[in-house]
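Encode chain A's predicted structure.
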Amino acid sequence: MPDSTSTEPLAATPARTMVRHAAGSGFDGGLRAFFEYRDLGIRDATRGAFGAHVIRAVPGRHPEPKWHAHDLAFQMVYVLKGWVRFEYEDIGEVELRPGDCVHQPPRVRHREVAHSDDLELIEITGPAEFDTVAA
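Encoded structure for chain A:
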């Protein structure tokens, strides 16, 4: 399968079904030191068009509520376990619990205010790689 840096048109390479089993998959560091990230393989499967991660809190580590924005076309968060509190420039502070979802519009200023030690969520972005800027 071509890598995500290929400049070949997507239609030129037929898509293949991709499966990523939880067994044997681990969590790694990532964008935020207070979270661990499990890559779901979507970046490679879509050649960078989308990304998806399971993100979980590192117990005892807490967010540093700094305003920022992401330069991307699509971002959503779906909470699996625990709770998280975000603040958005357009709607204010919201708390999300299991089953709750938020769509963060492109370049909206936001910050994470707090989360539980058992927080787990799914984040889906488009594209997979994007810039984060202090705002």
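The beta strands are 35-39, 51-57, 68-71, 74-81, 84-88, 92-96, 101-103, 110-115, 120-126, 131-134.
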